[in-house]
Amino acid sequence: MLGVLGLDPLAEPWASRGADDDLREVVDALVKGALAERQAARDRKDWSAADEIRDRLRAAGVLIEDTPDGESRWELKR
Fold it and tell me: Is 27:33 a contact under the CB 8 Å cutoff?
């Protein structure tokens, strides 16, 4: 029925990538770069630089979570 109306969610126009997907990739690359800088600062025990990077990301709306295994995850603040 939805196909007749042109609203089939599995049809190509709806399944293709949108601008938000491209933007997510750009943000992901930028955040990963910042997290690599932060990890380098932490490795050299430059805690103030690591905190500054975390704070800049937070101000931009990116929340960082450090996991017990030493990895960092991120998500956008909603």
Answer: no
pLDDT along the chain (78 residues), means of 10: 65 64 86 96 96 95 92 89
Phi, psi of 19 (to 5 degrees): -65, -35
DSSP 23: H
Token pair of 42 as six digits: 């932490």
Mark out the alpha helices in the chain (DSSP H runs). Answer: 2-5, 12-15, 19-43, 47-59
CA distance 74 to 78: 12
How far is it, in rounded angstroms, from Cα 31 to Cα 17? 21
